[in-house]
Amino acid sequence: MSNAARHEWRDQQVLLNERLKGFLANPGTEQMEAVVAEMRAYADAARTGNIDIPTTWTSYD
């Protein structure tokens, strides 16, 4: 996995996490739709090969 692909994957993860945090902080229809749309975009990107998903990674959280 290239550095650029890894950064693109990380950016997708960050965006998805931010949408989810927004929904958890203020649950509502609009926020839920945004989370579902982001999850679909992530799944579509993975399915079509637009992003590479690493098989392993290290989390430093």
Overview of the structural elements:
- By secondary structure, the chain is mainly α.
- It has one domain (3-48).
- Helices cover 70% and strands 0% of the residues.
- It is built from two helices and no strands.
- It has helices spanning 3-25, 29-48.
- The mean pLDDT is 82.
Topology readout:
Elements: H1 3-25, H2 29-48
Helix pairs in contact: 1-2
Supply the helix-strand structural class.
Answer: mainly alpha
Count of DSSP helices?
2
Number of strands: 0
Low-confidence stretches: none
Mean pLDDT: 82
- Classify the beta-strand content into a percent band: under 5%
Number of structural domains = 1
Rg calc: 13 Å
Describe the global form. Answer: flat
Task: Report the biggest beta sheet as strand number plus sense, adding barrel if it closes.
Answer: none
Termini Cα gap: 22 Å
Order of helices and strands: HH
Helical content band: over 70%
